[in-house]
Amino acid sequence: MDIIRQDFGDYATNSYLLKFDGFEFVVDPGYGSTEWILSQTSNLQAILVTHGHFDHIWDIASLRQKTKAKVYCPEQDSFMLESDCFNLGLTPCKADVYIENNESVASICINGINVNYWHFPGHTPGCSMIEIDNCFFSGDFIFHRSIGRYDFPYSSSSSMKYSLERFLLIDRDMVVYPGHGESTTVKAEQQVVPIWIRYIDS
């Protein structure tokens, strides 16, 4: 798997293009990403959503229309994809596959590629990290030395705390590609997550 990153929009939201043998996936196609994605792909098969915030899903409707790639979205964030709930002018779009949210890992197979959705709510109800080929695409759950905000509409501080506690239980190191900023690793962020848990408690 080859990974290409490009950030888009006022919030510098990372979109990730995953290239396999003969086809591609994209993770979180943000504002204005469609033309870049089309220029880099010839057989886009999947549009993977980490969570439903507008800066991560803005170009899904246009991209799906132009490529016919299937959209995979966490079930509890589907309402953000299907409606302009923040009144920003987003074009609504229904997912093709809704990923069931629970504390277990939801595993699906797309074109022979194993895709695991790890549900870590708090930033949004359906916020997830997507595991592919021993890498995590963490959306706005975990960043380099930081975590996602939990003071937005539909966010939850208690859910974020519980998700962070579960993150500490991951027992293998993996590269983490976040929704904003530079990449990091599971083990590196497990060193600082306890500080964030204490901050939520304060």
TrEMBL record:
One of its GO terms (molecular function) is hydroxyacylglutathione hydrolase activity. Its cofactor is Zn(2+). Its EC number is 3.1.2.6. Residues 12-180 form the Metallo-beta-lactamase domain. Keywords: Hydrolase, Metal-binding, Zinc. This is Hydroxyacylglutathione hydrolase. It comes from Helicobacter muridarum. The lineage of its organism: Bacteria, Pseudomonadati, Campylobacterota, Epsilonproteobacteria, Campylobacterales.
